[in-house]
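ENTRY TYPE: paired fold submission
RECORD: A
CONTENT: sequence, then structure tokens
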Amino acid sequence: MQITNCHTHIFTNKIVPDNFLIWPLQMLANIFTQDSSANFLLASTRKFKDVHYLLYKYITFAKTGSKASQEEVFNHLQKFYPEGTKFVVLSMDMEFMKAGSVKMKFEEQLNELADLKKKYKDIIHPFVFAHPERSGITDLVKKYIEVHNFSGIKLYPPLGYFPFDDRLNGVYEFVEKNNIPLISHCTRGGVFYKGKITN
């Protein structure tokens, strides 16, 4: 039986903005990312299920994201699945969410994924993130699908845009014309735009 995980992320902390977490969680994540005392903290909060879950989630997120490359995260992810499992890997563009600066630019993230696609071939199926504020987004999407064999497009409107933004029209025309998969974040959870909403 073929298993395909159709929604994974393997980005590192390098693409996460400086102010992604509210300061108490950011402080805890920084302290406990490399520190074995995280186990003590988690053990001491077990009876407070909501607090325990939140701490566990963000400490794990920070630890995994602290790996040196997306390939290291990908290899770690593979350990939880049977050999031969395929992965749809969704890139993220957080540069416009008004949460501070990032250490790795978006195209660097995409280029790493392009290298992984060459190396792992049919095991990995990267999707290129489409944010309407990114200059030349239609050309960028076309480049990574046509030249670098990305498999589809990822939208994440809670990062500060509407899915009907006119700047995405070229992306939608390309998708429709070429029958390209498009996936959109549409649940209440996840990460959100931190700037002021004006309309």
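RECORD: B
CONTENT: sequence, then structure tokens
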Amino acid sequence: MAGKVARTPSYQLRVELEDAAPPVWRRIVVPGHWHLGRVHTVLQYAMGWTDSHLHEFEVDGVRYGEPDPASGSEVRREATARLHEVVPAVGARMLYTYDFGDDWRHEIVVEALSEPVPQPSCLAGERACPPEDCGGPWGYAEMLAAVNDPGHPDHETFAEWLDDDFEPEAFDVVRVNEILRSIR
């Protein structure tokens, strides 16, 4: 296995949060031999989520996550699905859904394959990740409209709910990479 791991290319992925306006996206590089559970961890850090909710990947109609025998749904174990096996080529796509209540859907596209890397990194991105539990893309849009309009009836409520330092246009690639360096 060690030889196969050493030869497996790294994957440059573009991750875009669907239905977010303006767009929220990241460009990350991940070792291709990593399983989807580890990719999930990278996505959480790169996007800015807190890993407080369930998640799932979908590739060509096949779902990957943590199977729940009680649910009766067909979900394959993400810990056995390697990135290079489920999206083997440039242009391949997968869907990553985080928080089934808010339904944060991320389109992930393989942009490039390159020399193997030992750990993930973030190359670029735009805008802050929406706050957890804000009601999905539509709730987030409503929240931003209220915060940006002092005359909005929910202005005070949302302004108090958000951290004082929350900047929707901000993205700190250096900080994300500091966090990603902790993943082994």
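NOTES ON RECORD B: The beta strands are 10-17, 25-31, 55-59, 62-65, 76-77, 93-98, 104-114, 121-126. The chain has a mean pLDDT of 92.
STATUS: closed
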